[in-house]
Amino acid sequence: MALHGERFDEALDRFRASSDIASAIHANLFLEEALGNAGWAYFSLGDYEKALISFQQAEIQAKNLGATDNEILWLQSAGLSLYRLGDLKQAQSYYEEALRSADASHDAARKAVTDTSLAQLLLQLGQLDAAKARVDEALKTAQQIGDKASELDALFLQGQIAARASSGADTERIFSQVYRDAAGTPSLKWETENAFADFYASRHEVRQAGLWYRRAIQTFETQRSSVQDEELRLPFFANGDELYRDYADFLIASHRSDEALQFLDGARARTLKEGLGESVQATQVQPETPSHTAHRLDAVILFYSLGPQRSYLWAIDRNGTHLFVLPPEAEITARVKSYQADVLKSHDPLREGNSEAQWLYATLVAPAQALIPKESRVFIVPSGSLNDFNMEMLLKPGQSGSQERAHYWIEDVSLSMASSIQLLSRLAPGKERAANKLLLIGDPVATGEGYPPLSNAASEVESVERYFPPGDRTVLTQSAAVPVAYADSHPEQYSYIHFVAHGIASSLRPLDSAIVLSPPHTDPDNFKLYARDVIHRPLHARLVTISACYGSGLRNYDGEGLVGLSWAFLRAGAHQVIGAVWEVNDSSTPQLMEQMYHGLAEGEQPDQALRAAKLSMLHSQGVFRKPLYWAAFQLYTGS
Which superkingdom does the taxonomy of this entry point to (predicted)? Predict the structure, then answer.
């Protein structure tokens, strides 16, 4: 009942419990159904990666049981997950396998569902005739067997095809029919409302389009608010990402780009802002304008929104906002991945004149270059693949007729990552000096479970602690550096918190990301400080530093950004967090941290101190000049 009522968080709890029980007693039939249903709950919550795994596991169970009808269902469902993940080729392969099985077993119901899914994929590929043929067949089959849900899905797709073919009368008629019958299915209701909005926008009926966009967003927001579990809300925005993009496109086309910026920013970091007790309505009137925030922080804000057709950059300075249109997300992401792969292979992009690094600078920064004087403080509000990409290592080309040579962007600016402008608007400029109390946990006892001793951890501990008087520091190392020591130390009293340890990041369950500490004598298996535990301990820290691999996390959620340990400490209330976007080097990191804390002791702000430490490495003659070593760490700003 919870699944059919679209109360997906409740349904997921039940299905997970059922699958655990069924697995324990080897009840494979119940296990297969529980896995598949859990997949649907994950899918409906927007967590397509977990959904795919559940569907694939369910399909294997169904195949072993000889349950052909369910095997077809889970094949089609896995294909749908792959479609949402953007892997259209693999999705098509799953759909076609499901269709072959459905034809062979004369399963009309599964054939109708899969034909509709394949038609949607073909429409995405621009193959209108092939898509129409498929969906017409699906609708005919659904009507013959009296499957109302499949009939509505096929009808909705027919409306989308009619809209693409500029058949106005057919489009309105079909969407109206679907909308009448979709009242009990919120997801289909908001999709239909958004489709109506897109249709009226294409006909330049501005008032009607705006009305339907707002209806769609309200329906989506009502459904999102029903998800009570914070971890399950993280992926949910993926269901509404298209709604927000479409409405922003509409506002921009209507010459309301500032309104589009406020609207998109209101959708960023929703779960983080809710956890911090902030108001999260996208339409809420903000306490100050973005340009006022930039002025107050003496900074330039670069807000990115990557999309399938086009991307946007808003550059915000004290004088106002400036909109630039960028290439589609796929093109930017391909370049980001290519460049990052070169960096992780220890290439020297500056000496090699890396073309991807130059293209990315020319695309992502150069349009707004005139608004960013040298030595500017820059906040990046990223999108998509930019969430786990350090833009400091972009290559700015040399200027002909000038003595300026090609160089990394970090040479020009002090850069921080921010979750949203709303959160930045609540950030103090940072001139005041907080009480300098340090909690330092690290150099743990090796667990012997794939986490070897960190040979330079002790030296990093020593280099950090010496900047704080004995009475202002709590240092827990070796056998004292156990997970429970973090909470027992009352971390809310410290202005600086620093970890020196191994880190692990989970893509499937990002709140299972953890700092690997010492195993307690009484509970040797309990040696990890998990992100999910961190968020429940409120903080007031000026800066948390996670000197560990992958402290930033591996999972990027639409609207929420990168979620892992860094996100967890921001969620707990830390003002700024330093985390790593890839595996860090045990030899270079202590040098970086020592120089950063030297800068902090001299009164520099965290972004300035971290930048100076990185520049020191960059300007060295050894191997540490490469971005592999200094660009791993990023500074994340909360509120």
Answer: Bacteria
Of 75, 76, 42, 82, which is closest to residue 60 (Cα–Cα)? 75
Beta strands in 235-327 (DSSP E): 300-305, 311-317, 320-326
Rounded Cα gap, residues 77 and 71, in angstroms: 10
What stretch of H or E contains 561? strand 561-563
Q: What is the pLDDT of residues 274-314, one digit of tens each?
A: 888 754 444 444 568 999 999 999 999 999 999 999 999 99
List, for residues 340-383, the tens digit of each pLDDT value. 999 999 999 999 999 999 999 999 999 999 999 999 999 999 99
Q: Find how far residue 607's CA is from the centre of its chain.
A: 23
At the second CATH level, the architecture of 1-105 is Alpha Horseshoe (1.25)
- Residue 132: what residue type? K
Q: H helices then E strands: how many in the chain?
A: 27, 18
Contact 48, 238 (CB under 8 A): yes
Which residues pair with residue 458 across a beta bridge?
Answer: none
The CATH number of domain 438-637 is 3.30.1330.10: no
List residues bridging with 438 in a β-sheet.
473, 496
Q: Which residue, among 557, 256, 305, 291, has the nearest Cα to 424 in the 3D structure?
A: 291
Q: How many CA atoms lie within 13 A of 562 on its CB side?
A: 30
Residues 6+ apart with CB under 8 A from 356: 335, 338, 339, 342
pTM, two decimals, is: 0.88
The upper half-sphere exposure of residue 413, i.e. CA atoms within 13 Å in the direction of its Cβ, equals 27
pLDDT value of residue 402:
67
Instruction: Report the distance separating Cα 504 and Cα 451, nearest Å.
Output: 10
* Partners of 516 in beta bridges: 502, 528
CA 398/CA 378 separation, integer angstroms: 21
